[in-house]
Design a protein that fits this description.
16 helices, 29% helix, 24 strands, PP_kinase_middle, polyphosphate kinase activity, 548 residues, alpha/beta
Length: 548
């Protein structure tokens, strides 16, 4: 009951609420307000499956069950008329980290996380049929005005709950294809395979298990000296962390870069940081004013008197849960030049106050911040020069978001010079992809399908000797200038072709691909000759049938 309490309750911003208005049929001016949090988490589901007739499925929303029972819930109040409508709100989730004091980053984050739960409401979404008097009251108590982000809508909110819609109502539900183990990793230890050749894992089609196995093997291998790994987001019950804990217990020198400022994973990462610290691992907790977003690992092994390094560079997180849902690429390698640069990045992470000289010494990986922009400009300029001389020039780019104005200007220059440009951008897209000044039309699409397209892959024609990169960085100012990222060239001709083949499959998608034109009206790519190409299915088929 809220209208008479002095301090408004601290409502959780990820929940949905029923705003209840009670009145009497004999005196409608006598009204009371109440708020009920719909207890989705406590009950376990927002959907109630009801007894149904044969060949039908009757399902009720939890909030509707609550509405139906309002007269019983409030029977002691003496009211006989009830109405209730859904609303939800969003708090300001920015963490206010004060760098002027001397407290540690962990102490600052702990304080920031507590304050986030009390952050100022900045957005209110509600059923457009809500009682006007209750809405006015709610805006006043939340400190909002009608000029703020106030959004009337339908009667159902938090559609993310529909991901857990009762499965029994679907009789023809397609089964999701299961990840399969990469053929090269079926019969040998992962570390032993990598000493002979590079392996490219393409998630979610390939299983993530070999990544876990690589850390597990290293944890028990008597020849392994140390493990260094960067963790941005990990699974809630992380097998990677468990393997690292075992490695420490077995006497390995374990260094973990645990990015504590990973948005909305701050609390979980703080907990993992404590687990790893308690067991004796060396935990790096980030750099002031900069996030560590690189997905890298290096394992040091001593065989007789020879030192060998192997590990990975990836576009995605070391998270076995999201690896089943996110499209990413992970290069497992013992290439000494790549691993040397991974070590240089870790040297920078351990001694960031000494400047960027460790990153500057990278000769194979292209690190962020600072250095990636220069290299990208060189790569694009090479294609521009080739186009102006009449040679074949082409750039294929895949990423989550493209918003960096300077790189977009450079791409626009390339298109005007005659470079063929093909883009696959799932999220933010700030480029004008259509212009009469372009010598060849830019092909720009976004693919939204069963799996989240999360990978970053860049291909430059390079006069036929393709340069192919995988990266943790999108083309956004934050990734280019304000984060530690790793962009890795693919050296193996076979793996280069594998990535190019997958990109070409995606560029042919005419089922889940949408056109990124200047208006961004997201129209689907039109089918030609009744040929149906769904790139995620075709990518799976390509990989499952591939021989090595």
């Amino acid at each position: 009951m809220v209208e008479n309490i002095k301090k408004f309750p601290n409502l959780r911003d990820k929940s949905i609420f029923l705003g209840v208005v009670m009145s009497k049929s004999t005196n409608r001016a006598d009204r009371k307000y109440a708020i009920i949090e719909v207890p989705v988490t406590a009950v376990g589901s927002r959907f109630i499956v009801l007894p149904s007739k044969e060949d039908t499925h009757d399902i009720m929303l939890l909030e509707d069950a609550i509405k139906f029972n309002l007269p019983d819930i409030f029977n002691f109040m003496g009211y006989d008329e009830f109405q209730a409508h859904i609303f939800k709100f969003t708090r300001d989730a920015e963490l206010d980290i004060d760098n002027s004091d001397t407290t540690t980053i962990i102490q600052k984050l702990e304080k920031g996380l507590k304050n986030r739960k009390k952050g100022k409401p900045i957005r209110l979404a509600y059923d457009e049929n809500i009682d006007p008097g209750f809405l006015e009251y709610l805006l006043t108590r939340l400190g909002l005005s009608k000029t703020d982000n106030i959004m009337p809508g339908g009667s159902i909110h938090n559609f993310r709950h529909f991901m857990e819609f009762p499965s029994q109502v679907f009789s023809n539900r397609a089964k999701r294809k299961q990840p399969f183990t990469h053929p090269l990793l079926l019969d040998e230890r992962v570390g032993d395979v990598l000493l002979k050749r590079d392996v490219l894992l393409n998630f979610p089609y390939h299983s993530f298990t070999p990544v876990i196995d690589m850390i597990r093997e290293a944890a028990f291998d008597p020849d392994v000296v140390s493990i260094k790994i960067a963790c941005y987001r990990v699974a809630s019950q992380s097998k990677i962390i468990n393997a690292l804990v075992n490695a420490v217990r077995n006497g390995k020198d374990v260094t973990v870069m645990m990015e504590l400022k990973a948005r909305f994973d701050e609390e979980a990462n703080l907990n993992w940081q404590q687990v790893l610290t308690d067991i004796g691992a060396k935990v790096l907790t980030g750099i002031q004013d900069m996030k560590v977003h690189a997905k890298i690992c290096v394992i040091k092994k001593r065989i007789k008197n020879k030192i060998i390094h192997y590990g990975f560079v990836s576009t995605g997180n070391v998270n076995e849960k999201t690896a089943k849902l996110y499209g990413d690429h992970c290069l497992l390698t013992s290439n000494r030049f790549i691993m040397a640069d991974v070590n240089r990045i870790f040297n920078f992470l351990q001694k960031p106050d000494t400047g960027l000289h460790f990153l500057e010494k990278c000769r194979t990986l292209i690190p962020s911040p600072t250095f990636i922009r220069t290299e990208l400009n060189k790569l694009i300029d090479y294609e521009i020069t080739a186009a102006r001389k009449g040679h074949t020039a082409e750039i294929i780019l895949k990423m989550n978001s493209m918003a960096d104005a300077k790189l977009i200007e450079k791409l626009t220059e390339a298109a005007k010079a005659g470079v063929t440009i093909k883009l696959i951008v799932r999220g933010i897209f700030c480029m004008q992809s259509e212009s009469k000044k372009f010598k060849h039309p830019i092909k720009a699409i976004s693919i939204i399908d069963e799996y989240l397209e999360h990978a970053r892959v860049w291909v430059f024609h390079n006069r036929g000797n393709h340069k192919v990169y995988i990266s943790s960085a999108d083309w956004m100012i934050r990734n280019i200038e304000h984060r530690v990222e790793a962009t890795c060239p693919i050296k193996s001709p076979q793996l280069k072709q594998e990535l190019i083949d997958i990109l070409n499959i995606q560029l042919k998608d005419n089922t889940k691909a949408r056109i990124l034109n200047n208006e961004l009206n997201n129209e689907y790519v039109k089918k030609k000759d009744n040929e149906v190409i769904r790139s995620q299915e075709e990518s799976y088929n390509y990989l499952v049938n591939k021989s090595y």
